[in-house]
From TrEMBL:
The lineage of its organism: unclassified sequences, metagenomes, ecological metagenomes. PANTHER family: 7-HYDROXYMETHYL CHLOROPHYLL A REDUCTASE, CHLOROPLASTIC. GO terms for molecular function: oxidoreductase activity, acting on CH or CH2 groups, with an iron-sulfur protein as acceptor. It comes from marine sediment metagenome. Residues 30-90 form the Coenzyme F420 hydrogenase/dehydrogenase beta subunit C-terminal domain. This is Coenzyme F420 hydrogenase/dehydrogenase beta subunit C-terminal domain-containing protein.
Amino acid sequence: IQGLAKILTSDFNTGAERTSLRLAYACSSGGMTGCKFCTDFSGEFSDISYSPWGAPKGSGEAFLIIRTDVGQKVVDTAVEKKLIEITNPNPDLSEMKKFINKKRKKNFKTLLGKDLITAKYLNLNIDELKDILED
């Protein structure tokens, strides 16, 4: 499951007015079976990707990747309404990119090993496949 869920304006149970942003996600460290097979890892098809990656523990900070115009509008509105604060608009992504690439390769190998996908289905030639699987 990827993407932005709803911005709620009232609590169904109590009727109290509130605004909250809920993010739909289904990838947590060791928690979901899909994490062993997912070759996306960072929510590439979502409006906003969220991760506590690199944030000091207990800081309440999170890492956001804004991927679409809709995602940008949501974040801009949240900042404008002081619901969130941007603490570092240009974080260093080099370590995260290395981790993501390593996870993609590992999970791609897992998928091939379990016959869940085939190189023919992905339309890869042997040289492209070698590049993907190269460590």
